[in-house]
Amino acid sequence: MIALTEQERRILALATPVAESLGLEIVRLRIQGGRRPHLQIMTEREGGAPTNVEDCASLSRALGPVLEDDDPIKEAYTLEVSTPGIDRPLTREGDFGRWVGHAAKVELARPIDGRRRFTGIITGEDENGAHLELDDETELVAHVHEMSRASLILTDELIEAARASGNLPPQPDEDDLGDLEIDESDEDTESNEETGDVK
């Protein structure tokens, strides 16, 4: 689920060794359409360690020459490298296991009894897949590769967990921000976006 299409998987194969050389992992890679394609790459430090905008910028700079040489997107496109954010997508085996006790939403590639979308609390992850306790007290067990999308749900508990792990961006109401300027936009991820023509 890190990449969905053949083109995305080709770019992922190019980007993965570049990210690993910087101590980073790719969480999700998507190409969004339109007259000018938008290549979005979400990344984090290995093991989910705190990741900042400089990590994103470093990966963006390192990827530029690689993508230019291989030319996986023929037309001009926009490259955006960002962190996953607090309510992060869950795309890899092991992602659910890191967030036991937190709420998540899952959409399956194929429905179960006519149902694709599920919301529940992550109770574990093992060789059988991710385990979610649903609102009706039933359980969903599914592997990441059986999902079309999955992500954490933003809750107070999740915010506190992000704060404790050092992955919470500075908040406008914190007292120790000094003269730091806060961008109070709706975007909850740190990113580095290249807006020029990328070939």
Walk me through the topology:
Layout: H1 6-21, E1 24-32, E2 38-45, H2 53-70, E3 77-82, E4 103-112, E5 115-126, E6 129-134, E7 139-142, E8 147-152, H3 156-165, E9 191-198
Parallel strand pairs: 2-3
Antiparallel strand pairs: 1-2, 3-9, 4-5, 4-8, 5-6, 6-7
Features:
single chain, 199 residues, alpha+beta, GMP Synthetase, Chain A, domain 3, SH3 type barrels, 2 domains, five-stranded antiparallel beta sheet, four-stranded mixed beta sheet, globular
Short description:
This protein has 199 residues and is an alpha+beta fold.
Your description of this structure?
The protein is an alpha+beta fold. It folds into two domains: 6-86 and 189-198, GMP Synthetase, Chain A, domain 3, CATH 3.30.300; 96-153, Roll (SH3 type barrels). Helix content is 22%, strand content 35%. The chain has helices at residues 6-21, 53-70, 156-165; strands at 24-32, 38-45, 77-82, 103-112, 115-126, 129-134, 139-142, 147-152, 191-198. Strands 7-6-5-4-8 form a five-stranded antiparallel sheet, with no helix packed on it. It is globular, with a radius of gyration of 18 Å.
**Share of residues in helices:** 10-25%
CATH superfamily grouping of the largest domain: RimP-like superfamily, N-terminal
What's the tally of helices?
3
Beta content: 25-35%
What does the main sheet amount to? 5 strands, antiparallel
Instruction: Tell me the structural class.
Output: alpha+beta
Rg, rounded, reads 18 Å
Mean pLDDT, rounded to whole units? 87
Order of helices and strands: HEEHEEEEEEHE
> What would the principal axes of the Cα set say about the shape?
globular
The CATH topology of the largest domain turns out to be: GMP Synthetase, Chain A, domain 3
What is the tally of beta strands? 9
